[in-house]
Design a protein that fits this description.
The chain folds into two domains: 80 residues, GMP Synthetase, Chain A, domain 3, CATH 3.30.300.70; 74 residues, SH3 type barrels (Roll). 29% of the residues lie in helices and 34% in strands. A five-stranded antiparallel sheet has the order 7-6-5-4-8. β4 and β5 form a beta hairpin.
Length: 167
């Protein structure tokens, strides 16, 4: 079922972040979490509705085409949502979306807050205090965006951009 849902989400222009199917009374609850690199401020209600329609159509087609029996065991409830601010940064695209945001990072014995710079497929550049360092994703045990109520300090942004421009 996951490939069918992932394909429907991708055709709608989004990324499947998480899929979970669980029993909820007599029905199955299908929870789909979607995200996008292109959604600057997150995914809006219109986009969630669009993905919901696409996933529902794909699941219904899967149920109709499955002659050996129902994949979901009958009726289901579909819940489509976007990830919350507190979701862990686990993929390069999460780090790219968090660019210039403040993050809390735990890497082995080291725990720190940092400002996110450029991210590639192997790691991310972080401004930790006054030092820019490259951190490999494999070294990060846990990382989340921290809520800030002000714009990032201009000096921090300038430091990140200067270091990234000089690579």
């Amino acid at each position: 079922m996951e490939p069918v849902v992932a394909d429907a989400v991708a055709r709608a222009g989004f990324d499947l972040e998480h899929l979970r199917v669980q029993q909820a009374g007599r029905r199955q609850l299908v929870k789909v979490v979607v995200d996008s690199d292109n959604a600057e401020g997150g995914i809006g209600l219109d986009e969630v509705a669009e993905v919901s329609r696409a996933v529902a159509a794909a699941l219904d087609a899967l149920e109709d085409s499955n002659t050996a029996g129902s994949v979901l065991g009958g009726s289901y409830t579909l819940e489509v949502t976007s990830p919350g601010l507190d979701r862990p940064l686990t993929k390069p695209r999460h780090w790219r979306r968090a660019r210039l945001r403040k993050v809390a990072v735990r890497a082995g014995e080291d725990a720190f807050t940092a400002r996110v710079g450029d991210a590639d497929e192997q790691g991310v550049r972080l401004l930790v205090g006054d030092e820019v360092r490259h951190v490999s994703y494999s070294d990060v045990e846990h990382a989340v965006v921290e809520v800030e109520f002000r714009e990032p300090p201009a000096a921090e942004i300038a430091k990140l951009e200067h270091e990234e421009g000089s690579r």
